[in-house]
């Protein structure tokens, strides 16, 4: 039976991933207290995504504090964190006894990172297409041993529901296939939207139209 652990919780309206960094601005008193405990006790904390309806998801990521970038006079903090491993929430306490923040009993999930090198190439080509469509000047990640699908999420045009589905997938190849299937649907829609934008932008302008040859 998988072992469980108690983890301080920092619910947010976004999805975090193992191996991926996240910068946070800490201003609420309860999370300032959490960060003080993280520093003093050298502990980690969990981020589980919360949807707009307030529903917290059952799978999240354990985070470690990487650095404190700035401390403000009023106690606010700018911090850098790094995702460590996935977890499943077994039981949630909205407020931990004696604390302002919540905690959860969690079960850590095994995560496979053995991806298919060729599938990474397919994903990177798809992402480059998105960059080209929207004229995004951004360098693509390198397809090396450090690459994984979690590091590609920010450029894969997933909505939060899709990001939640992705983090629930245990194996890297299945996560690769999930992203490829999504982009196969998203890219034609993006191309169509961009063509519509160009037509709207051209409305009222004089255009050099070449008539078709009907002979």
Molecular structure report:
With 215 residues, this protein is α+β, with helices and mostly antiparallel strands. The protein has two domains: 4-108, Archaeosine Trna-guanine Transglycosylase, Chain: A, domain 4 (Roll), CATH 2.30.130.40; 117-202, no CATH class. Helices cover 32% and strands 24% of the residues. The chain has four helices and six strands, in the order E-E-H-E-E-E-E-H-H-H. A five-stranded mixed barrel has the order 1-3-4-5-6. Strand 4 and strand 5 (77-93) form a beta hairpin. It starts with a strand and ends in a 13-residue tail after the last helix. The mean pLDDT is 92.
Largest sheet strand order: 1-3-4-5-6
- Return the CATH architecture of the largest domain: Roll
Beta-strand portion reads 15-25%
Instruction: Give the total of domains.
Output: 2
Helix content: 25-40%
Radius of gyration: 22 Å
What name goes with the CATH superfamily of the largest domain?
LON domain-like
Total E-strand runs? 6
The total of helices stands at 4
Broad shape: globular
Element order: H for helix, E for strand: EEHEEEEHHH
Structural class: alpha+beta
Q: Could you name the ranges where pLDDT drops below 50 across 5 or more consecutive residues?
A: none
What is the straight-line distance between the termini?
Answer: 76 Å
Describe the structure concisely:
This protein is α+β, with helices and mostly antiparallel strands and about 220 residues long. Helix content is about 30%, strand content about 25%.
């Amino acid at each position: 039976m998988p072992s469980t652990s108690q983890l301080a919780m920092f619910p947010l309206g976004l999805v975090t991933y193992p191996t991926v960094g996240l910068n946070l601005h800490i201003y609420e008193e309860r999370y300032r207290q959490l960060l003080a405990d993280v520093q003093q006790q050298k502990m980690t904390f969990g981020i589980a995504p919360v949807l707009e309806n307030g529903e917290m998801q059952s799978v999240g990521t354990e985070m470690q504090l990487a650095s404190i970038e700035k401390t403000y006079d009023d106690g606010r903090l700018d911090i850098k964190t790094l995702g460590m491993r996935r977890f499943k929430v077994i039981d949630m306490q909205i407020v931990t006894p004696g604390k302002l923040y919540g905690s959860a009993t969690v079960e850590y999930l095994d995560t496979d990172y053995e991806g298919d090198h060729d599938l990474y190439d397919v994903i990177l080509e798809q992402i480059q297409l998105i960059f080209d469509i929207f004229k995004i000047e951004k360098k693509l990640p390198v397809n090396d041993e450090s690459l994984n699908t979690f590091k590609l999420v920010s450029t894969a045009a997933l909505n939060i529901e899709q990001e939640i589905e992705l983090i629930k997938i245990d194996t890297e190849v299945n996560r690769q296939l999930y992203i490829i299937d999504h982009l196969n649907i998203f890219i034609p829609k993006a191309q169509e939207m961009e063509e519509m934008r160009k037509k709207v932008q051209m409305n009222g302008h004089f255009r050099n139209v070449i008539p078709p040859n009907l002979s």
